[in-house]
Amino acid sequence: MTTRRNALGLAAMAAGLAAGMAVPALAAAPPPTITRGVLTVAYRTDDKPVSFIADGKPTGFLVEFEEAIAAKLGLKVRFVATSFASMLPGVRNHIYDTAAFATLVTPARQKAVAFTTPIGYGQARLVSRSGAAIGKVDGASGKTVAITQGSALIPLLRHIAPGVKVREFPNIAASLNALIAGQVNGLFTGLATANALVKKHPGLVASQTVTTGVAEYPVAKGNPKLLKAMDRAIGELMKDGTYTKLFVKWNPPAVRIPDQLYKDYPGMPHQPPAKA
Q1: DSSP string over 171-195
Q2: Does residue 46 sit in the same domain as residue 98?
Q3: Which residues constitute the domain of residue 204?
Q4: CB under 8 Å to 257, separation ≥6 — which residues?
């Protein structure tokens, strides 16, 4: 009976093709992941608006973008809280499939992990106390500045402000506490985080914005199928407006999608213009 039913099904499909009828394509199998059917994603709990915890659950711009990627790939998603310093080693060692973090691509990091197509272009600002403001990033020379441990911003800051003394902290919260307590003169971090800190803490101010480089998701070198699938999903989500909608949702109008990202993904919907 089963053989006859299969034969009838194949015959019907063949008849449909012969008649010019559209036959639905079989869905592609999900890419290989550490846990079958699940995309395991490292994330930071204190990096608003990129990734953080609200009502006991992970959320934020890149958390929601990872959820959209997983849905495109036919995967469930599991978020695992970790420090920034542990993210890339964890991806390299197959503890995480990827990370909900716009990781700046550097030659050293490319030796450790593979990277997807771009998801942004890094920008950063130097946050300081209003009573002892550091107006420009190069003004940090000779001062002590807090940066998250392992950040690619460390060599950038040393290049812009020779003579700066860098103090590394495990996370943004620890860096912020050190700044407020007067243990450091400034805090150098990504644009979105810097803007959020200044908005939440009236006693803080931020410097001009500096461009830091291309940002991409990390993937283990030993999993090219996942990398290829994520690249495809990212491209589709850029072009269908999902990325733009999430960017607008999680960022103030003054924070703009970099022009280069529109060039990377022709046809990508543009962010609404900022009001004057």
Answers
A1: SHHHHHHHHHTTSSSEEEEEHHHHH
A2: yes
A3: 122-212
A4: 244, 247, 270, 271
| Backbone CA torsion sign across 85, 153, 100, 115 | negative
Q: Name the strand (E) or helix (H) holding 107.
A: helix 107-112
The number of folded domains in the chain is 2
| Residue 105 belongs to a domain | yes
Same domain for 207 and 128, yes or no, is yes
CA dist., res. 81 & res. 75, Å (int):
19
**Cα–Cα distance between 149 and 171 in angstroms, integer?**
7
CATH of the domain at 197: 3.40.190.10
- Confidence (pLDDT) at 27: 53
Cα–Cα distance for residue pair 210/101, rounded to 1 Å: 19
Asked if the peptide bond before residue 162 counts as cis, ω within 30 degrees of 0, the response is no
233 part of a folded domain: yes
> Taking the chain (276 residues) in consecutive chunks of 10 residues, what is each chunk's mean pLDDT?
43 42 54 98 94 97 98 98 94 98 93 97 94 96 96 93 97 96 97 92 95 94 97 98 98 88 97 83
Residue 276: predicted pLDDT: 60
Terminal C-alpha separation, the chain? 71
Q: Let me know whether 127 and 202 are in one domain.
A: yes
- CA distances (Å), origin 197, targets 61, 108, 203, 258: 16, 29, 10, 21
Question: Same domain for 207 and 135?
Answer: yes
